[in-house]
Amino acid sequence: MKKIVNISNLLFIALLAALLWPSAGRQAPRHLLLVAVVIKAVALTRQAAITNGEARQGTDDVSAIIFAALLAWYLITTRFVLLDTMLFPQPEAVLALFLTELPTMLKGLINSLILLVSGYLLALAIALPLGLLVGWRVRLFHAVNPFTKVLGPIPPIVYIPYAIALLPTFRAASIFVIFIGAFWPIFINTVHGVFNIPKGLLDSARVLNLKERTLLARVILPGAMPSICTGATLALVFAFILLAAAELIGANSGIGWYVKNFADYADYQRVIVGIIFISLVVTAITWGTERLERHLLRWRS
Amino acid sequence: MLLTAIAKKYAGTVIILLIGVVVFELATDVTGWLEPVLFPGLSRILPAFAEAFPKLLEGLLSSFGLLLPSYFLALAFGITLGLFVGYHQTVRTMLMPIFRGASPIPPTMLIPYAISVLPTFWLSSAFIIFMGAFWPILMGTIHGVVLLEERYLDNAKALGLHGRRLFWKVVFPGALPHIFAGAGMALVFSFILLTVAEMFGAKSGMGYFIQYYSDFSDYPRVLSGMIFMALFIILMMEIFDAIQRRALHWTGKR
Amino acid sequence: MNLKHLFRISTIVIVTFTASLILLAAGAGAKSPARLKVGYAPGGGSILAFIAQDQKLFAKEGVEVELVQFSSTGDGLNALNSGKIDIGLSFGTAAPLTFISKGSDFTIIGGALSGGHPVIALPARAGQFKSIKDFKGKTVAVPRLYTADVVWRGALMRAGIDPAKDLKIIELKNPSAVLEAVKSGKVDVGIGASSIFLQAKESGLAIVGWSNDFFPQHPCCRIVAKGKAISGDPGVYRAFLRALLQAEKVKDTNPKLAQDITKRYMNIDDKLAATFVHEPHQHVSVDPDKKRVKQMWHELKDINYVTSELDINRYINTQLYSDALNELLRRQPKDRYFLDAKVRFEKQNM
Taking CB atoms and an 8 Å limit, are A147 and B136 in contact across chains? Predict the structure, then answer.
């Protein structure tokens, strides 16, 4: 009995009740119902498949939160209109729009990913070795440190005109914006990571009398890996945040462009659709990177 | 004695800076090789800086008046929530997908909602900075707790530390390096967000100044504002580093 | 530093901040009736408000005005929509019309600026752009959704040119970016805005045309307010328009004073202030110019920036302006300036 009466199920039923409640002149919101049912189905399947008790509880709770959010959203915007409908659109309209806009957004995503991957990999390729070197050599660190502190917080509004003027193409300028956004988290966290390597590890390595290159690659890099992973994840988030700014330079598609474009036209339904889409994409990507992270850090446990 | 120590430490920095300034001046004022509107020489930047100084000071006060409360609030919420979430696996599995989904929302997209919902423009601006600073701190804290090496926890438990004492004596200090990394990123991001947060309903501010003159392509003033803000960022980060060194002194790092 | 102390300090911070938040929210209570918060984006469209404020014209008409600055049109209109400001002064024409098409209760009650956006190109390419047809096959930088952009696209459409097929458009965030794109040679020509006119000239670029060529005297900035607020207290909006009308007269009869006020209020150099006040292609006028606003609306629909079946007449109120003008004429029946304004009003609105 206890298994059936839990918060997730209660909220699910409450949501269904609210959606199906008859109301004058209003159709039952089909898309919202569909989403609710699908989420419940997925949750149930996962629960059947997982045996770990804690993870099971976790899945249940995620679905509970989603149901609570959908219920609140529905009540506040559709049942009792408490907020301005232009800025806070109804969930049914948003979900219906989500389906129709999906092809456009997927196409946009591909364009965005090209920018993101280029900028991100470039940042990784430069920030990682640079960070390792600067973190390792104290004199270099002291010399360079003030500059890194200053160059980091330059807002895009300032460097975009320079990017347009100096770089060969608009595409390059867009990639540069992503590069800058991703560079600093990776660089600073790499440096931090080097600093925080356990002394024991360094002492053992010193005994082996390695060449600096090998030392950096075989000892320092793995030692700094936890911090580097934190930085890399943060860099990913920043890259997405800057996507809108990057795609304002001569682009006419891309998911960042999509959100900014419709914000300018005060079409907040599409803005929210776009943001939900980006959130789903980032959640999927970071879920993937978390597995990668666990793999990279496996030698620790 | 102290002066020579400081001089030695920053000698490298000063040299790089001087070389940079000389090269810049050569390329702008002396030869005019770089396009003058986008790259004004010091002959135009310095007078603009001097003229704008009172305004920039005024801007400094209002920007810090905006930034500090928002940042500290983000610190308080982020660390508290992060410690809790990081430490309890069930909560973490539950909330992580939501955090991951919410963190890439650009603060600029939140502006219409901040203006609409919050009663004053100042609060809306503070909210933007808060949202920008919150995520790095939260994620850093969670990462810090999660990545705490198993053996520290095992050793601690073997020594008989449990519950609260385990938390305060082992988990929190162990996560501190990552927390500081996240807090440092959040500080930098807050400064970047000043230009965005001071875009509405503001009368002064360093970010406001930079944004304002960008709209008119007035680069001597834009760069003056940027240099001014940079000096204070260095100051803030030095203070931050000093606090970090004190807090992490037990780790015996450089 | 004891870690427990850190925790305690953060608790104190949270409490203090929340307390001050509550105090602030309580303080931000109701305004007294004759008080208006006027939002503006600094530029040619906001000059009249500065003059009115400086010459105490608002006070004379019994209104207390607080000027609230915005860097982005969208933020300003959102603030108007959610009641955080009462009037939007220089947020363009296209943007308010877009908001209206999405259901905002906005009403256009007057004007602030018309025309005056330069089309810029490198001197070497300047000769190529003599008419709208010369844009075919070229790469053009535009500041998305700015008035100049909308007006240019309308002209393209009327010339039978399809922007998607017949030329290449590079959309940029703002006129500054357009300026840099043109200078860098990556585009053939740029649709600029009045805010970068001076810098374009100083960078050595050529002005190959004006937005006025595409749509003569096109409205640029309009005065926007919320319909419900106007019907609640039309008197204060009339007073606002009266003050601006007198400011308009000051600007035209004493341009040097206008330039000085602009320079002070906008914190810019003399040269830049001069362009905002004296540039001949810009027309500063409080007249709502209903006919041209309607033309703009139809153009927005034709170029697919807006889809709407709304009757735009419901969202333009010329009565307030007419009342304001008549009141001023009642006080000074022989005033040449306002008599001319009345003739112009009838031509542009009836």
Answer: no
